[in-house]
Design a protein that fits this description.
Blueprint: E1 8-9, E2 13-14, E3 17-18, H1 23-29, E4 33-34, E5 45-48, E6 54-59, E7 62-68, E8 73-74, E9 77-78, H2 84-91, E10 96-99, E11 105-110, E12 115-120, E13 123-130, H3 135-141, H4 144-161
Antiparallel strand pairs: 1-2, 2-3, 4-5, 5-6, 6-7, 7-13, 8-9, 10-11, 11-12, 12-13
Length: 162
């Protein structure tokens, strides 16, 4: 099944993929292809998302994160086309950042949003999205028209996990 939407709801989902959802059904529904482990001791599995330059990671049969290299939409902006300064204007100041070795690469963290931006020469090159437990913050940054969608998602998750 093709993935049409690639909208990010901070800490909750990217497109149709909800963090914490059971992975087995999602893998089958979207015909995800398992990739070779990044390291031999990995305690997670990674799957290629067809039609996207992105991959989904699972731990304990739950979706744990999504790595995006092609697109990541939020508030009518593709985050992966922004500079670091433009990302700050959209998301607010980052909570933490660190250079990656002796290069122009940098990791910028928005822990409360479940977001890590991977930046090179001041431009966002990719993003890692994962679950965030700071729901109150999410409702402060989400536009009101997405609150219902986020609340519905949260209710479905609570039902599914009980």
């Amino acid at each position: 099944m093709p993935v049409d939407s690639w909208e990010w709801i901070p800490g909750k989902s990217v497109g149709p993929f909800q963090f914490g959802a059971k992975a087995r059904a999602v893998i089958a529904r979207f015909a995800l292809r398992k990739l070779e482990p990044a390291c031999p001791d990995a305690d997670w599995d990674t799957y290629e998302i067809p039609g996207r330059e992105s991959c989904l990671s699972t731990e304990d049969d739950r979706i744990s994160s999504i790595n995006c290299w092609d697109h990541l939409y939020y508030k009518d902006s593709d985050i992966l086309t922004l500079s670091r300064d433009e990302a700050r204007a959209l998301l607010g100041p980052e909570e933490e950042s660190e250079p990656l070795g002796e290069t122009s690469l940098m990791a910028v963290y928005y822990h409360s949003l479940g977001l890590t931006l991977w930046i090179e020469d001041g431009w966002i090159k990719s993003a890692t999205c994962e679950e965030s437990s700071d729901t109150d913050l999410i409702f402060r940054i989400l536009p009101p028209n997405l609150w219902v969608k986020a609340m519905h998602s949260e209710k479905k998750r609570a039902f599914r996990n009980n």
